Amino acid sequence: MRPLKMVDLELERRFFGPRVESAVLEVLNHTQFIRGPEVQAFAQALGEYLGGIRVIPCANGTDALQLALMVLDLRPGDAVLVPAFTYVSTAEVAALLGLKIRWVEVSLDHFNLLPEGLEEAWAPDVKAIIPVHLFGQAAPMQEILEFAQKKGIAVIEDTAQALGAEYIFPSGLHQKVGTIGDIGCTSFFPSKNLGCYGDGGAVFTFSQERAERLARIANHGQSTLYEFAEIGVNSRLDSIQAAILRVKLPYLDQMNAQRQAAAELYTLYLQDIPELQLPQRVSWSTHIFHQYTLRVLDGRRDQLKAYLSERGIPAMIYYPKPLHLQPAYASKEYPPGSFPHAERLSQEVLSLPMHPFLSEDQIAYIAETIHLFFR
Ligand SMILES: *Cc1c(COP(=O)(O)O)cnc(C)c1O
What we know:
about 40% helix, globular, three-stranded antiparallel sheet, seven-stranded mixed sheet, Aspartate Aminotransferase, domain 1, 2 domains, alpha/beta
């Protein structure tokens, strides 16, 4: 059996090998490393894949979130709603722009933010909400949209872990996540479902005006050559990364389906272990399994992780500390105990290896080892 990894980029490299190599070679030959034709071509293709939205490429997913906050003209003193249990980027950019963060409680079942938590977190200074579609499954967008509309605030979707997942409206309509709120953001970090071989990110919007301004902000706020209309940043997707992403995008649905097949096998093999809560599927979303994340309910999460590690099985804790308790973000307003679900999840979650190239043998071995631990 092949040694286990959380994400096996070597197998991916073998799958895409010559196709990626010739795409990269083309860029090396034309030497337009920045703003090469691949960047717009990829943005166009991704926009079409997402249902005809405008895609503004940028340097990484964190920048995408920052660009979204900047184009909404949020100002120091404004506040944003952010789930307490997520990756740090979501909060970091808000803090960097001088915004106040109001945390929102999350669900113990699906790990995304809890609609009931929104009203609790609400204050009149809130100008936007950033739902994160965590681990590959959509946040409860219908409730989030209704809340945002009622309060007159913007919705920025953090789609870094769920590119290709679909939200299912009560009417039955399917829509790609990242295209539902006012602005969508994503990351092409190598381990994401659509990853490049370096850093990359993008912002999505249906508004042409907003798209033009996002592109301008990402390019130093430059309106015409050496004319700077507003303060911007330097955030670009480079031509080589765009060329790689163009090769990979047509395979995104296939790769996500392979993740789903792996997840189904995990669930089949692990469903009879009462100490585990397996990933809970929600009715309002497809699940593209960026992560396959368990809750270990008997308090032995860390022992299980060590046990697996000794047997050659990597597992990761996403995330070991909720953001409201991180030294950089802690405040008297949110003492320990403020978000019991987020705090409990940080003690109980464990993510198993997950990528499109997991073999049945590997999954069976992981499941068998987990069974041995609980026997
Ligand atoms: C990966 C990730 C980001 C940041 O993406 P980078 O490209 O690494 O900056 C933001 N939010 C979430 C939820 C992520 O998983």
